[in-house]
Every structure is written in C-alpha cells, then in structure tokens.
C-alpha cells in the first residue's frame, strides 16, 4: 500500500510539472504578441516622452486641371466698332478700388420734439458748435430734458469772436454764471491760451484790462450767487490769486505764506456749494540750492477773509493739480482733485484721483488715472472727474498705454464701497470733460477723433450711449445747466 502511494505521488508531481511547462509556453506565446500600452511617464527608456510635434509643416499643393470648353465661342463686335481696333479688346489691369473714407462718427439726424414737457422746464447744454472744417466756431445752446433727450432745435447761438479752426483757435474751458449773465472761456491761439469774459447783455467780450485794471492770467470759478469770481490776476504791482467782485473788479488776495522759504503757486480754486468757503490747491516747486521736494497742499479760507487760511493737508512728492479738477462734494464734506505724483515703479509722473475728507483731514489717492506726458498735459479736460449730485459716486476718465497706443475709458467709483465699474470700455477715441448730469442719471463726456468731436451721454450701468450734441471741436468743453 505504501509503495502504491509513492507511485501515485510521483505521477502527480510529474503531472504538475507538465502542467506548469504548458502554462509557461502559452504565456510566452501571448507575451510575444505586439500589444499597445500607454508608456510609463517615469520610464527612462528611449522614446518617452514622445518627440515634440513640429509647429511647421508643408501644405500639400493640389493642382486643379480645368477642362477646355468643347465649343469655343467667338464674340461678335458690337455694331459700329472701329475696324482698326482689336476685338475683343485686350483686358486692362483694373484700377485698385479705393476704400471710401468713412465720416468720423457724425452726429446722426437727431429727433427733435418741439412740444414742451408739461410742468417741467428744459435743461440747456452749451457747447462750441463747429459749423464746418474751417468755419468760425460759435457757442450753441441745445435744449434737452432731464434724461438727455433733445426736445427743441437749437435757436440760441453766440459768436464769441475768436475765429475759425483754420486760424488755430480751440476752446479749452467754459464756465457760465448761475444767472446766465457772463461766460468765462479759455481759447488757445498760436501765441498761447487766453482767458476772456463774455457779457450776455451786451453780446461783447469785456475789455478786462480797461474795466478791471488787471490782466486775467487764470480763471478758476464763478461764485454760486454769480457776484464774484476766483482768478489769478496780474496788476502793475503784483501777481496774485484773488477773490474778485464782478461789477467793479475789486477784490482781496488769497495768497498763502511761504514754506521753508518757498512760496507756493495756486493751481486751482473752488467755492463750496453754499459759497461760504473757498478751497485752494497749491504746489511748492523744487528750487536749486533748496533741495526741497515737490509738495502739494489743499487749504481752505472763509470767503472774503484772507487771514482765515486753514491747511487741510499736504502731500510730499505731490505735483501740480490739474486746472478745474478741485471740486467740493455737493454735501460740502469732501474735496476731490487730480494731481501728479512720482512713483517708485519708474513710471515717472502719474496722475492720481485724490480725495480729502474735511472732518478727518485725511487726504489719499483713490485711483490711478494715467501717466503725465513729458511735454505736459496734452489734452484739455482730459484728466477730469466729477461728483454725483448725492456725493456718493465719482465719475472719471482713465488713460492707459498698450503696445504704443493710448486707450481711454470712463470709470464710476462708489466712494463708500470702493467698487469701480467701467461705463465706457477702452477706446482709442479721446475721451475728456467727464461730468454728471444735474439729476445724476447720466454721465456726459466729450469724444474726439482727429479734428472732430461730439458730446455723448451714458447711463450709470454703461447703457444707452447716445450722442446729444455736435459736431464740435476736439476735446470740447460744455456746460450742462439745469433750468430752475
């Protein structure tokens, strides 16, 4: 029995060995077959990673063979064709088509509704109307409703008497008294920019030197009651920033005392909404031998009291304030202005939108508006900003450089939340003179291309962009007046 068991065990071992040999043979056959497997990214074998695909390749040329026409037709010359001229005539090379020059976004034919709005007076927008390329420029009044819709055809036009575009004049700034009695405007001639005051009652420009006894160097603002104005004047004895009475030219100087032996220059001035206070933006320029930095200052005076100067804040390394950008908030609690400051990033002088709070005395830059050109401010009214009527928002223009081109956009800033949104997306058309409409529902601005311009409006959600006045001069100033 034991011998038989041993025989069976030997047979079993042999069977198992044969089975394993057979299984190995089968597996070897299977493994020798080509199988596509994804390579192991960690493998160091040649062939992985796969070679890069060339980004250039030859496009195969396909030759199309045109089958000849079965029956060639010989056209018959028209009756009266000269016998000595070849028919059909030789094909000539056509003149290249010239792309017609499109008109530069001309003001469309605006719809005028001649009927009055019941129970409401219409607002007015005054702007420099350009009658033709080389024609004289006249100030035109456009009547509109509070939503910016034109309701009447323009009827009031004023000839300010400063020539045509061919003579190189440009209207740079425009301010009208609250009683519509006077217009102060700045025009650029070949000899430089000059300020003029136009009297509505006489229809003439005032001879300022003869009437007031001084030369008007810079005009800042009319007072809310239209009885005074702020200006930089030059008399036979001195040059000063002053509060001037409209009727007789009498006034008081609002000069600031020196700081570290340097007297400041007055860049801009503005009346508070109630007319009781005057804010001034001053700048202290570096002088050789003094080793002093640039410095910007905001001071406040009580109207008519030159000794009441209160320094609200000073900004070291702050450069000049842009003319007519110093503005009180309608609630009289804050001030905004546009001023330059040299950055540490190598950008040179950069224009910033600044905000000052009277209650805290804090001044801070709240938005970057663009670089200052080396030759100075190239666009009149370009670095502009304005308050909303409820003092909660500021609309301003931003200039950005990209690949050698300038792009412009208009931004709406909520000063409580700090949130910004674009009202006008970047464009190469020059945007300037940004303002709110009197009711705060629209933002109004000038848009210019080459030597042509218009006045447009946009809603506070960036909607409803509409031209409302034009054609006008480039970077045209305008004055939206809410009728009482």
Question: What would you note in describing this structure?
Answer:
The chain is built from 2 helices and 29 strands. A hairpin with a 5-residue loop joins strand 25 and strand 26. Mean pLDDT is 75; it is low at 1-8, 30-75, 87-105 and 374-378. Helices cover 7% and strands 42% of the residues. The strands form 7 sheets. Strands 16, 17, 18, 19 and 20 form a 5-stranded antiparallel sheet that branches. The protein has a 4-stranded antiparallel sheet with strand order 3-2-1-29, with no helix packed on it. The N and C termini lie far apart (132 Å). By secondary structure, the protein is mostly beta strands. The chain has helices at residues 2-31, 208-212; strands spanning 123-130, 137-144, 157-158, 170-176, 182-189, 192-199, 204-205, 215-222, 228-234, 239-245, 251-253, 265-271, 277-284, 295-302, 305-316, 318-321, 327-328, 334-342, 349-357, 362-371, 385-387, 393-402, 405-414, 420-427, 430-436, 442-449, 452-459, 466-472, 479-481.
Topology:
Elements: H1 2-31, E1 123-130, E2 137-144, E3 157-158, E4 170-176, E5 182-189, E6 192-199, E7 204-205, H2 208-212, E8 215-222, E9 228-234, E10 239-245, E11 251-253, E12 265-271, E13 277-284, E14 295-302, E15 305-316, E16 318-321, E17 327-328, E18 334-342, E19 349-357, E20 362-371, E21 385-387, E22 393-402, E23 405-414, E24 420-427, E25 430-436, E26 442-449, E27 452-459, E28 466-472, E29 479-481
Antiparallel strand pairs: 1-2, 1-29, 2-3, 4-5, 5-6, 6-7, 8-9, 9-10, 10-11, 12-13, 13-14, 14-15, 16-18, 17-18, 18-19, 19-20, 21-22, 22-23, 23-24, 25-26, 26-27, 27-28
């Amino acid at each position: 029995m034991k011998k038989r068991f041993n025989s069976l065990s030997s047979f079993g071992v042999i069977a198992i060995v044969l089975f394993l040999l057979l299984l190995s043979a089968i597996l070897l056959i299977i493994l020798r077959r080509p199988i596509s497997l994804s390579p192991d990214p960690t493998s160091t074998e040649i062939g992985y990673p796969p070679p890069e695909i060339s980004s250039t390749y030859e496009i195969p040329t396909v030759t199309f063979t045109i089958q000849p026409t079965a029956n060639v037709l010989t056209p018959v010359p028209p009756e009266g064709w000269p016998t000595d001229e070849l028919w059909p005539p030789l094909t000539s090379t056509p003149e290249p088509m010239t792309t017609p020059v499109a008109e530069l976004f001309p003001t469309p034919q605006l719809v005028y509704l001649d009927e009055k709005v019941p129970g409401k007076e219409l607002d007015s927008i005054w702007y420099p109307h350009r009658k033709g390329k080389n024609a004289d420029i006249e100030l035109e009044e456009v009547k509109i409703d509070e939503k910016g819709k034109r309701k009447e055809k323009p009827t009031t036009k004023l000839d300010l008497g400063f020539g045509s575009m061919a003579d190189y004049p440009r209207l740079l700034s425009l301010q009208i008294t609250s009683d519509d009695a006077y217009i102060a405007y700045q025009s650029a001639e070949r000899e430089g920019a000059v300020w003029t005051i136009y009297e509505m009652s006489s229809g003439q420009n005032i001879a300022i030197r003869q009437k007031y006894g001084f030369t008007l160097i810079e005009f800042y603002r009319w007072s809310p009651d239209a009885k005074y104005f702020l200006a930089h004047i030059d008399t036979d004895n001195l040059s000063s920033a002053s509060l001037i009475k409209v009727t007789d030219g009498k006034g008081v100087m609002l000069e600031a005392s020196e700081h570290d032996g340097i007297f400041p220059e007055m860049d801009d001035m503005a009346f508070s909404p109630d007319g009781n206070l005057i804010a001034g933006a001053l700048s202290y320029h570096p002088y050789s031998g003094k080793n002093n930095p640039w410095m910007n200052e905001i001071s406040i005076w009580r109207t008519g009291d030159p000794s009441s100067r209160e320094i609200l804040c000073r900004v070291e390394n702050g450069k000049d304030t842009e003319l007519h950008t110093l503005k009180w908030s309608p609630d009289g609690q804050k001030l905004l202005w546009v001023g330059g400051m040299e950055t540490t990033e190598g950008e040179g002088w950069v224009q910033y939108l600044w905000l000052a709070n009277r209650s805290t005395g804090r001044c801070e830059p709240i938005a970057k508006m663009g670089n200052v050109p080396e030759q100075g401010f190239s666009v009149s009214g370009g670095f502009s900003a304005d308050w909303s009527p409820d003092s909660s928002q500021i609309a301003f223009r931003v200039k950005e450089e990209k690949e050698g081109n300038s792009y412009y956009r208009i931004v709406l800033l909520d000063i409580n939340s700090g949130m910004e949104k674009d009202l006008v997306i970047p464009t190469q058309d020059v945007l300037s003179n940004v303002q709110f409409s009197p009711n705060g529902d629209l933002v109004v601005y000038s848009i210019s291309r080459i030597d042509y311009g218009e006045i447009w409006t946009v809603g506070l959600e960036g909607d409803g962009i509409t031209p409302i006045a034009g054609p006008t001069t480039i970077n045209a100033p305008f004055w939206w007046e809410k009728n009482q």
